[in-house]
Specification:
This protein is of the alpha/beta class. The chain has 18 helices and 18 strands. The chain binds adenosine-5'-diphosphate (ADP) and alpha-D-glucopyranose. The site of alpha-D-glucopyranose has 14 residues, from helix 1.
Length: 480
C-alpha cells in the first residue's frame, strides 16, 4: 500500500472558492484503493459549511513552536465518500468568513498550516510516501520536508509533489518577515531558493524543493515556461522542465450529471437533450425574469469575476453583443468593477442580461444545464473546469485558445463536421465577438449542425480515471 497525503487550502464539499477545491475533493476518490491510501488535510476554517461540521470530530491536539510562540494544533477528522480528511484547527488563524483574507494575514496562516500539516503526521500515525501539495499556500511543505523534518526517521525519504493550479498567486512578501515567521535560516533566502526579486516567494520554495512538479494541463505546462505566462518564474520552469508535467483535470461525473442532477428543473441525457434540455432554459428564464422563449440562444457565464477570466474583453463588446438576439446569464463574484459592469448591463438590457452576483452551487448547475453556449474567454487558464462541466451538460463552450481551454475544447470545423465548441486565438474583444456571432449563426441557421456539436460535446470523457492513472504512475515513479 502506498500512502499519499494531499495538502491544500480548500476541498469540496467542505469549503470552496474555485476549481482547486473541486480537484482536491474529487481526485482522491479516483485512485485505485487497493494500492493507494490517499488522505487529505485542509485548515479547519470556521466558514466550513455548517452541514458538514457535525461529522467532523476531534482527534487530538498538541503545541507546536511557531513564530516565537507555542501554538495550538488541533486535529479534526472525518471520512467523506471513502476518503479520510484531516483538518488543522486553530481559531486564531482560521476564524474567517472566506479562506483568504489577503496579505499579509494569509502568509502567517498558511505557513502555520504547512508546518502543522507535517507535524500532525506522527500523531495520526500516517506516514505518507508522497506529500502532494497544491498552490502557494502549501509552498513551504517541500521546503520544511527537506529541512528540519528530515532529521527524524519518520520523515526521511518522504517525497513531495507541487501542483500549480494558478501561477499568478505565489505568496510573496519581504524576506525579513517570512524568515521570522517560517523560522527558516538565511540559507533558504537566496535567488536559487526562496528569494524572488529581493522578496521571498513561498510557491517558488515549493517549486525548487519538490521532487516533481505538475500543472493542470499540457498547454499550461508549456506556457509557463514563457515570460508571458511565467509570472516571473518562467526561468525556473525551464530549468525544472524535466520534472514538470501537465496532467489535465477531470470533474466529478456523479456531482455533474445531467441525468441525475437534483438542482436542475429537468434531467436529460445525450439521447434526450434535443427535447428535454430546453425545459431547463425555460425554467431558468422564468426564475430570472427573462423573456420565456425556447428559441433564444442563452449564453452562460459562471466564474470568479477577475482579469484572468477575460472580463475586460466582455466589457468592451457588451453593448454590441446586446444588439444580438441572445440572453446572457452571469453568475459570479469578484472584482467590484466587473460585478458593477454586469449589474449595469442587466439594468440597461433587462430583457437580455441577468446578473447574479453571488456564489451558489445550485444556480451554477442550473446555468450549466440551461444555457446553449458557455463563454470563457480567459487571458490564461491553467485548466478550467467550467468548460468541462459545460461539455458534460451539452452546453457548447466558446473559449480562448489558452491553457486547459485549448486542450479540452476542439474548435468546430464546419467542413469536416468536427469539434465540440468555438474558440479564438488572440486576446482581442472583436475576435471574441466574431466567434460568438459565428456560434449564433450555427445555432440559429444550422440547428442540426449545432445539435451534432452538442452530441460530440456530451460524448467527451473528462471524468477523473484517465488523469488519476497518470498521477498514480508519477507516484510509483517517485517512490521507486
Ligand atoms: P477557477 O478555479 O480559476 O476559479 P475553474 O473553472 O477551474 O476556475 O473552477 C471554477 C469552479 O468554481 C467551478 O466549479 C465553477 O462552477 C465554480 N464557481 C465559480 N463561480 C461560482 C459562483 N459564483 N457560484 C457557484 N460556483 C461558482
Ligand atoms: C485554478 C485555475 C483553473 C483550474 C483550477 C483547478 O483555480 O485558475 O484553471 O481549473 O485551479 O486546477
Amino acid at each position: 500500500m502506498k500512502n499519499i497525503l494531499f495538502v491544500a487550502s480548500e476541498c469540496v464539499p467542505f469549503i470552496k472558492t474555485g476549481g482547486l477545491a473541486d480537484v482536491v475533493g474529487s481526485l482522491p476518490k479516483c485512485f485505485d484503493k487497493q494500492y493507494f491510501d490517499v488522505r487529505v488535510v485542509i485548515p479547519y476554517y470556521s466558514c466550513i459549511k455548517d452541514q458538514y461540521k457535525p461529522q467532523i470530530t476531534y482527534r487530538d491536539h498538541f503545541y507546536m513552536s511557531f513564530n516565537g510562540k507555542q501554538q495550538y494544533v488541533g486535529i479534526m477528522e472525518t471520512e467523506y465518500e471513502g476518503v479520510k480528511c484531516y483538518f488543522i484547527d486553530n481559531q486564531e488563524y482560521f476564524t474567517c468568513s472566506t479562506p483568504y483574507s489577503g496579505m499579509p494575514y494569509d502568509l502567517e496562516k498558511f505557513i502555520y498550516f504547512s508546518k502543522a500539516s507535517l507535524s500532525i503526521l506522527p500523531v495520526i500515525g500516517f506516514r505518507p510516501d508522497v506529500i502532494h501539495c497544491h498552490d502557494w499556500q502549501t509552498g513551504l511543505v517541500p521546503v520544511y520536508l527537506k529541512e528540519r523534518f528530515q532529521g527524524g526517521d519518520f520523515y526521511r525519504g518522504i517525497k513531495s509533489v507541487m501542483t500549480i493550479h494558478n501561477l499568478k498567486f505565489q505568496g510573496v512578501w519581504d524576506i525579513k518577515t517570512i524568515k521570522y515567521i517560517s523560522g527558516l535560516s538565511d540559507y533558504y533566502f537566496t535567488p536559487d531558493k526562496l528569494e524572488f526579486s529581493k522578496d521571498a516567494n513561498l510557491l517558488k520554495g515549493g517549486l525548487v524543493f519538490a521532487d516533481a512538479i505538475t500543472t493542470v494541463s499540457n498547454t499550461y505546462a508549456e506556457e509557463i515556461k514563457t515570460p508571458f505566462y511565467g509570472e516571473g518564474l518562467d526561468g525556473l520552469m525551464r530549468a525544472r522542465a524535466h520534472d514538470l508535467r501537465g496532467i489535465v483535470n477531470g470533474i466529478d461525473y456523479d456531482d455533474y450529471n445531467p441525468e441525475t442532477d437534483k438542482f436542475i428543473a429537468k434531467n436529460y441525457s445525450a439521447k434526450t437533450f434535443r427535447k428535454e434540455k430546453v425545459k431547463n432554459k425555460l425554467a431558468l428564464q422564468k426564475e430570472l425574469g427573462l423573456p420565456e422563449d425556447p428559441k433564444t440562444m442563452m449564453i452562460g457565464v459562471v466564474s470568479r469575476l477577475t482579469d484572468q477570466k477575460g472580463f475586460d474583453l466582455i466589457a468592451y463588446i457588451m453593448d454590441e453583443l446586446c444588439q444580438d438576439n441572445i440572453q446572457l446569464v452571469v453568475l459570479g463574484t469578484g472584482d467590484e468593477r466587473y460585478e458593477n459592469m454586469f449589474r449595469h448591463f442587466a439594468w440597461k438590457y433587462g430583457n437580455k442580461v441577468s446578473a447574479q452576483i453571488y456564489y451558489s452551487e445550485a444556480m451554477s448547475h442550473k446555468i450549466y444545464a440551461s444555457s446553449d453556449a458557455f463563454l470563457m474567454p480567459s487571458l490564461f487558464e491553467p485548466c478550467g473546469l467550467s468548460q468541462l462541466m459545460s461539455l458534460r451538460y451539452g452546453t457548447v463552450p466558446i473559449v480562448r485558445e489558452t491553457g486547459g481551454l485549448k486542450d479540452t475544447v476542439q474548435p468546430y470545423n464546419e467542413f469536416e463536421s468536427t469539434g465540440t465548441g468555438f474558440s479564438f486565438t488572440n486576446y482581442n474583444a472583436h475576435e471574441m465577438l466574431n466567434t460568438i456571432r459565428y456560434a449564433e449563426c450555427v445555432y440559429y441557421d444550422r440547428k442540426r449542425e449545432w445539435n451534432k456539436i452538442v452530441d460530440r460535446a456530451m460524448a467527451q470523457d473528462y471524468s477523473w480515471p484517465a488523469s488519476a492513472l497518470q498521477y498514480q504512475a508519477m507516484y510509483d515513479w517517485l517512490i521507486g
